[in-house]
Amino acid sequence: MSSEQEAVPVEIPVGEEEGASAAAAVAEAAEASTATAEEAVDRVPVYVRGPTAVDVTPDKDGGVTKEIVRSGEGEGRPSTRDTVYVHYVGSLVDGTKFDSSRDRGERFKFTLGTGAVIKAWDMAVATMTKGEVCVVQCIAKYGYGKRGSKPKIPPEATLVFEIELLDWRGEDISENLDEGILRSQLVEGEGYQTPRDMSTCNVHVVGKCGDRVFEDRDVTFIIGEGDAAGVTAGLEQVVRKSKLGSKSKAIVKSKYAYGSEGNAEYNIPPDADLEYEVDLKSFELLKDSWQLNIKEKLESSENLKNKGTEFFKVGKLKRAKNYYEKIVEYLKDEERLEDETEMNSRNHLLLAAYLNLAMCHLKLQDDIEACHACDSALAIDPRNEKGLFRRGTANLNLRNYEDSVADFKAVLELDPENKAAKNQLAIATHKIKQIRENEKKTYAGMFEKFANEDVKKAEKLQIWKDGDKQENKVENGAQTAATESGDHPAAAAQ
Predict the structure, then answer these.
(1) Among 266, 196, 260, 185, which residue's Cα sits nearest to residue 231?
(2) How far apart are CA 105 and CA 20, in angstroms?
(3) What is the spatial distance between Cα 326 and Cα 306, in angstroms, rounded to a whole number?
(4) What pLDDT, in 10s, does the model give residues 87-143?
(5) Cβ proximity of 149 and 4 under 8 Å
(6) Are 190 and 245 in contact (CB under 8 A)?
(7) From CA 53, how far away is CA 68, in angstroms rounded?
(8) DSSP H helical ranges for 153-259
(9) In the chain, what's the furthest Cα-to-Cα distance?
(10) Which residues are catalytic?
């Protein structure tokens, strides 16, 4: 949020009605008395900057000063992107109070260093320790700027804040945002890039369990394969979120560390939370497709396939999927290679990648993506048994029984002895038979219901007709009797 915007919550008073009549003079006087009392309540002692106030601006221009009223605990300070919790009282230089979290009875939280509050707050709070109380004075440049924040803060206002830092916690960088990995940045690092899947990273890590350091080492590992180098999932996630040259401190919950089993080598007990200090010294991203020639793409794809298969065999399906998807990225657009050997290699590797992706999706119960992967594989080799079988399985799971039957029949045309295809075909055929029988019963019931309703309608219609005939017979008899007695209107007209 810019200095021109309201960052700290400001209570907006309810305006008083204007234009009271002369007859309400006494009421106006009472209101004025109340307003004067309220003004007195909404004032704090005028702040006079003392000799211990320090300039906390990066340029040391004196625009933001901080004076400690009460020292905090320890030496730890919040870092950029930490969530901080504070109490504060905000006032103008004449002592007019414009906002107070204490008056509201609730602490205020914000994300440090991201522009969520005025610049003065980001600067000052970053220098505070837990429990510290300080007075911060800032000119408009570091507050609400030329426009102020109506109605409480006038334009070009110098502001005074008494701030108490209650607590803070690191940024939640866990994939599920379950606060399982809380990271505080000590040094932000350079540039904008961070390691991605399959990046090679060189880090220095210090791991603590309680107050005990259990590891202090340089380690090189590949993102997605950290466990091979003794890197926990939590530590790997910290590295994923780090820039080159960054230094971080992270609290990692046990489920992202060594879990319920602990680690005998490091003497980590079960369900232990860990603390890491991480220095990302260097990393190398896996090259993008445009950076490689066809030979390099084919060589890399072969290595990716082998690594993906290793992960697949040990049940790490999501990691395996990442490797197969990278092969697709490298080779899918290489459709017109002049060298026949290279074209055959491309088709072989791409076909394997699509088939393996289909199997990963099936095991991950993502049947729609499994169908898509099989479609791509069959576009390369329309008579591929694995592609047909896996698409048939996905269609069966999706209850696309007709398509499933067609796929399994195609498999059996290629291999009449394929027992798995026979079994799946029998299941799909039975499902279709069940559906048709249920539809037949449903329609039969509907027809019977409609026939019964038609009979009832016919009976009602006949009853109505019979009643109408009887009514007409009675009416005709009455008319005959009236004519004979001379009372019929026609007779009177004669």
Answers:
(1) 266
(2) 35
(3) 12
(4) 999 999 999 999 999 999 999 999 999 999 999 999 999 999 999 999 999 999 999
(5) no
(6) yes
(7) 7
(8) 233-240
(9) 132
(10) 88, 98-99, 118, 144, 161
